[in-house]
Each structure stands twice: as structure tokens, then as C-alpha cells.
Specification:
Shape: globular
Helix content: over 70%
Oligomer: single chain
Distance between the termini: 46 Å
Number of helices: 13
Order of helices and strands: HEEHHHHHHHHHHHH
Number of strands: 2
Strand order of the largest sheet: 1-2
Radius of gyration: 19 Å
Strand content: under 5%
Length: about 325
């Protein structure tokens, strides 16, 4: 079990203080980056972009600063630090130099393999271990794919990890609760500068580690019996459904799924005329609904869980169908 250490009996106020510090560190880091012009790489608009002006894409540095607070309090193993740090370092380099896809993918595989070593017990079997690696790699990439509209990825981190923190706190798992609360708070500090009109983007240095952590902490909660396997999937379903369905469709059309495009459902809503603000606010409502229902369902009978999950599946089908009928693919 990761990080059970010194905070195994921590109270809500410890979690609150740690989260508050994380949010403040994230906010201050980005504030001073913008104030003194130390913003790093700039995202120049192109024909695939949803923005029209150049915006720095280094806000993830602030998020990582906030995450470190949570890790310092709950103290995961060194291997976990290495996995997250390696992902963040390579992702930051990619923001500056656009590394080859094989380099990014290899780094993600190594990080996921290290995390699987400490997250997935041997008795779960080889299939579960391979599935865990693929899940973490996919979440790291899909979060990056979905980071393309002001306030969207930051909001998903706030609501998604806040749901993790709530469920873990109620289950008495302070390590997951503190990490998740600190990640949510750090994302909130970033969101203050990223909500429309965005002054900074998170970049790969923020989106890739956030996706990886969403998967890794989801697996940690599963191992510690905090939640069932469907819980992380429902909590982050707003991103998972859009990215997975879009990439599957592109793959079936034999298109290069790793190339930049504007076919995600959120991108097509912008093409349809929605503002970034309208998209973010409506996405937040959906995120709150899915994450909130996931938290409520944990203690519900299995039949109720199945019915609600099926109902959410139908909601997503209807939403995607409505967008398919009205918004073009470009």
C-alpha cells in the first residue's frame, strides 16, 4: 500500500491545509511566471487550433508545484516520484522541442510499468498488469488530447480529483485523499489563469501527468478497496468517452490517430459556434453530475450501480448523436 505512513490518521483539517497550500503554490507559481515573463514555450495558433492568439503553454509547471505539496505530506514511494517526474520532464521537453512520438510513448510505458509494479499486486495476474499499463498510458494521452479549450482540462482535474478525495476520505484512506485533494487544488490555482479568456495553457507538462495520475490513483483506490473498478471511469468519463470514441472512429477510417485534428466532440461544439466559456460551463455541469453520481453509487446496491452506469451510457450516446447531427468533422 502506497503512502500509508505518517498521515494514516490525518483529519480533515490536515487535508484542507495541504490542499490550500497546493492551490496557493500553483497560483503563485503561474502568477510570477506571467508577471515576470518566465513563461517558457508559446503555443502559436494554427489551422488546427481553437485559439487565435499566441498563449504560453507552461501552466502545468504550477500544477506540478502544487502536486509536490501533496506528495511531500503523504510520501509515496521513490518509484512513484520517478514515474511522475520522468513523465513531467519529458513532457516539458516536448513542449519546447516537439519530441518524436516514439520517445514520448516509450517514456509513458516505462512510467506506467514502474507504477504497475507498486500498484498492481502479483495475484491479480499478468493480464491485469498489462491492462493497468495500457490504462495509464491511454489516460495520459487522452488527457493531452482533450486539453484544447480554455478551462476544460483544468476543470476536469478539479472535479475529477475532488471526487477521488471525497471518496477516499469517506473510506478512511488519507493518502489517496490528500494526494487527490492537492491535485484538485493545484488545478484550481491554474484554472484561475486558464478560464476563458485564457492567459496560459497547461501544456503537455501538465496534461500528461494529470492523465497518468488519474489512472494511477484510480488503480490505487481499487487496490485499497476504496472504490470499484467502474468508479474512475465514470468520474473521468467526460474525457474518456470523447477521446476514446473519437480516436476509434479515426482508426476505423484508417486515419493517423496520433496526428493533430479537430474532430473531438468538444472541438466540434466550438466549430458549431459555442464560446470557450459556454463549453467549459456546460462541461463542468456534466463533470459534476458524473463525478457526484459516482460518489453516491459506491455504497449503492450492485443493481443500482449497473442501472445508473447504463443510464449514463445512454446519455453519452444521445449527446454524441446530437453533436454528430449538427456539427461537422473537419
Amino acid at each position: 500500500m502506497i503512502g500509508a505512513g505518517i498521515v494514516a490518521d490525518s483529519s480533515w483539517w490536515v487535508l484542507g491545509v495541504a490542499a490550500g497550500c497546493s492551490g496557493l503554490v500553483s497560483w503563485l507559481t503561474i502568477f510570477f511566471m506571467l508577471r515576470f515573463g518566465r513563461v517558457g514555450p508559446i503555443d502559436q495558433p494554427n489551422h488546427r487550433s481553437l485559439h487565435q492568439v499566441a498563449v504560453p503553454r507552461s501552466g502545468g509547471i504550477g500544477i506540478l508545484g502544487g502536486i509536490v505539496i501533496g506528495f511531500a505530506v503523504a510520501m509515496p514511494p521513490v518509484i512513484f516520484w520517478i514515474a511522475v517526474g520522468g513523465l513531467a520532464g519529458v513532457s516539458l521537453l516536448d513542449d519546447f522541442r516537439s519530441l518524436p512520438a516514439r520517445v514520448r510513448f516509450l517514456t509513458q510505458l516505462v512510467a506506467a510499468g514502474l507504477a504497475t509494479w507498486i500498484l498492481v499486486p502479483a495475484e491479480w495476474g499478468l493480464v491485469a498488469q498489462v491492462a493497468a499499463v495500457l490504462f495509464m498510458v491511454w489516460m495520459a494521452n487522452l488527457y493531452n488530447f482533450m486539453d484544447g479549450s480554455n478551462g476544460l482540462a483544468g476543470g476536469m482535474a478539479v472535479f475529477g480529483f475532488a471526487a477521488y478525495a471525497l471518496a477516499a476520505s469517506l473510506a478512511g484512506q488519507s493518502d489517496i485523499a490528500i494526494w487527490s485533494a492537492c491535485i484538485a487544488a493545484a488545478a484550481g490555482g491554474f484554472l484561475a489563469f486558464n478560464f476563458d479568456p485564457a492567459r496560459i495553457f497547461m501544456g503537455d507538462v501538465g496534461s500528461v501527468p494529470l492523465g497518468f495520475l488519474a489512472a494511477a490513483l484510480g488503480l490505487q483506490g481499487l487496490r485499497q478497496d476504496v472504490w470499484p473498478a467502474w468508479f474512475p471511469l465514470l468520474v473521468f468519463s467526460v474525457f474518456i468517452v470523447d477521446a476514446t470514441v473519437t480516436l476509434l472512429r479515426r482508426g476505423l477510417r484508417r486515419e493517423k490517430v496520433w496526428l493533430a485534428h479537430r474532430e473531438h466532440y468538444y472541438q466540434r461544439l466550438i466549430q458549431l459556434g459555442w464560446s470557450h466559456r459556454r463549453l467549459a460551463l456546460n462541461a463542468y455541469l456534466l463533470m459534476i453530475a458524473t463525478a457526484g453520481s459516482a460518489c453516491l453509487l459506491i455504497a449503492a446496491p450492485s443493481t443500482t450501480q449497473v442501472l445508473v452506469i447504463v443510464a449514463w451510457g445512454m446519455v453519452y450516446v444521445l449527446l454524441m448523436r446530437a453533436i454528430d447531427c449538427r456539427a461537422p468533422r473537419i
